[in-house]
Amino acid sequence: MTKRMVLVASVAVALLVMLVLVVLSVMSGLQEQTQQRNYRWAGDIVLRRDSLVGFGYYDEFIEELQQQQEIAGATPILRTFGLLGPANDGVQIIGMRLGEFCEVTDFGETLHEPLDRKPTFEVAKDDFWLTKELTTEQRKRGCIAGVLLMAQRYTRSWSKSKLNTMREQGLASGDWSLTVFGLTRRGTLAGSGMGDRQTFWYVNDSDSGLADVDMYSVYVDFDVLQKLCSMDGMDNGLKRANEIRIRLQEGVKLDASRQMVAKLWQQFVKAKEGELGANLLGDVKIETWKEYRRNQIAPAEREKTLMIVVFSMIGIVAVFIIFALFYMVVTEKIKDLGVLKSVGGSSWGVGQIFLGYGALVGLIGAIVGSILGCLIVWNSNEIERALGLEIFDPDMYTIARIPDVVDYNQAVMIGLVAIAASVAGAALPAWRAGKLVVVEALRVE
After folding, report:
1. With CB atoms counted within 10 Å of each terminal CB, which end of the chain scores lower, N or C?
2. Is 178:200 a contact under the CB 8 Å cutoff?
C-alpha cells in the first residue's frame, strides 16, 4: 500500500512537471516569435508623431543621426489611411524608401519574391500580367501588399494556402486602385477634399507574421505617397513625414541609445524654434521598438503570466496531494514509527525520513516529467501531424509551426520548484511523525 502511494505521488509530480514544461515552453516560444517579428518590422528605435499631418525637417535630423557612432541607419516613413478598390475598403498606406527601409529593418526577409536586385517599387517591364505599356511615371507606382490583405482581395478569405493556389495560376497580381486623402500642415483636407484615386501595380507582398500589419497594409514609394498626401512641400515649402525608423550598431544598448536620440531631438527642436512648422516638432515621441509595438507584444506576455499563475494554483493542489498521501502513510505506519522511536530514534530523525521521501518523490517526478516534457516539445510538430491535428490553423494564425525549443534554465527551475513543493507537502506529515508519543503509538492496533 505504501509503495503504491509513493508511486502515485511520483506520477502526479511527473505529470505536473511535464504539463508545465510543455505549456510554458510553447508559450515562451510564441512570445519570442512575437517579439522577433515585431522587431524585424519596426527596427530598433522609432521617432514618430501620432498625427497624420506629420512633421518636417526629417532629412536634416537623419543627417544628424548618421553622424552618431551608435546609429547604423535611419529612414523616414509616411503613414496614412486610404480606400482600396471599388468597395472602398479601408487600408493603411505606408510610404517608404524601400532600399533604406530594408537596411534599417528586416522587411526584405518578409517579401514573397526575394530581393535579388536593388530594392525598388518600380514595375518591371516584363511582368507577364501587364495588359498595356506603362509610362515611366506609372512604373514608379508599384506597391507591396500585406499577405493577408492579398488573400482577402483574391480569395475572399484570410487563407494563405488559397492565395498560393491563386499565385500558381497567375491570378494573384494586377493593379490596385487606391484613394488617398491629402492633409495640409494645419490638418485640413487638401484639394477638393474628395481624395485622389490613383492606380498602383502589384510588385510583391509581405508576410511579416503580424496580423494587424498584414491585414491592412499597402506599401508604396515614399516620394509618390508624399506627393499624393500633399506633404511634399508644394503648399508651403515644408516636406513632412510621420516617422523615422532607426537601426543601431551591433552591441549598442537600446535604452541608452533611445535616451541619446531623445536628447539629440530636443536640441534639434530647440534649434528650429521660430521656423516654419516648428509647432509640429514638439509632440514627437521617441520609443524603442518594444514601446512602439507594446499593444501587440503585451498580450503574449500577459498570456504567459496568466499560465504561470494557473499552474502555480495547480502546483498548490499537487502539494496537498503529496500531503494527503504522506499523511495516510504516517497513519498506516504509526505503530512502526512508535517502535522506531522506542529504540532511540529521535523526533528529527523520524521526521527526516518523510522529508527525504518527499524530496525523493519530487526528484523522481521532476526527472521523469522533464524528460517527457522535453520529448513532447522537441517532437510537438511531428506529434501534431501523426495525430492529424491542426492546433494552429495557418489560415487563421500567423504561426507556421509549434515552437519546439526548450528553455533549459526554465526546465531546471520547474524541476526545483517541483522538488520544493514535494518537500513542503511532506513537511506536516513529517512533523506529525516526529511528534508521536511512543506509548500512544505502540497502543495502536
Report:
1. C
2. yes
Distance CA 184, CA 206 (A): 30
Give 160-207 pLDDT, tens digit per residue: 777 777 776 666 667 788 888 877 777 677 655 566 788 888 888 898
Name the burial class of residue 33, with classes exposed (0-12), middle (13-18) and buried (19+) by CB atoms within 10 angstroms of its CB.
middle
14 vs 20, 309, 315, 363, CA distance in Å? 10, 19, 12, 9
Q: Which residues pair with 203 in a beta bridge?
A: none
Decide: 27 and 380 in contact? Cβ < 8 Å. no
Residue 343, burial from CB neighbour count under 10 angstroms (0-12, 13-18, 19+)? exposed
Any idea which residue has 500642415 for its cell? 185
CB burial readout 216-241, b (16+ within 10 A) else e = bbbbbbbebbbbbbbbbbeeeebbbb
DSSP assignment of 190-232, as one string? Answer: PTTSS-EEEEEEEEEEE--S-HHHHTTEEEEEHHHHHHHTT-B
d(CA 318, CA 12): 7
Q: 254-312: per-residue pLDDT in tens?
A: 999 999 999 999 999 999 998 888 889 989 999 999 999 988 888 877 877 887 787 77
Residue in the block written with cell 514638439 = 282
